[in-house]
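User: Fold this; tokens only.

Assistant: Input:
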Amino acid sequence: MTEQPEANHVLLDTEGGVAWIRLNRPEKLNPIGSLARRQLDAALKQVEREEAVRCVVLIGAGRAFSAGADVQEMATGGSGEMRSAEDVGRVLREEYLPMLQRLRTMPKPVICGMNGLAAGIGASFALACDIRIAAEDAYISEAFANLGLGPDGGVSWMLPRFIGRGRALEMFYTAERISAQDAERFGLVNRVVAKDAVEPECRALAERLAAAAPGAMAAAKRAVNFAEGSSFEDAVEFEAYLQETCAASDDFREGVAAFLEKRKATFGAR
């Protein structure tokens, strides 16, 4: 019997210095099931280690970014019985956490193309990216309460930092969605664009960031991550360390030379 090829629930393409990771179950609004988790984890590991990749875009196929976890998959076959509570916790700890942490810490800019709904764990993936560009009809939903669940995917840490404790708890309690326009007003997304402009906007920004100094991009991300849990004095000390590291790089020398010569710098050349 011929073995069927594995479905591509996540696609990875590289264009120049930009890696495009696309959640690819548009007919179901890109839920993140076991196969998607495995393929997404592999894609994130690959783009993080490839030096040629200077910027990453995470986006959904079709009309949504991601509807969240694959709720159907949480039930076992025809029995209709739900997975054990221990298995739900294991998936969060062992599968989701490493991917979310990789998005937050990989030394490269990560852009989320929020081309539609971002719900549940899908919203967590969007919020774990560095920059979010949202379609005008996109929205964020934290509807865990409708399933009798508490928040997961690190959203209880991320969301209050974006919009404050009160708004975050209201979202968790009521399961009401936040429109792209309110998300922009609250600082959850960087900009709102027309539906058909999400991918071109992501491409233009990603290409710009891919042409920037890789060390400077990495330093900015490290500095912000460190500062989130440090004192002002410690943040300044860490910035000084990062500046020392950057100042010893070829990209710093190229940047200074380009400035003095009034030309565009070419960063990352070896």
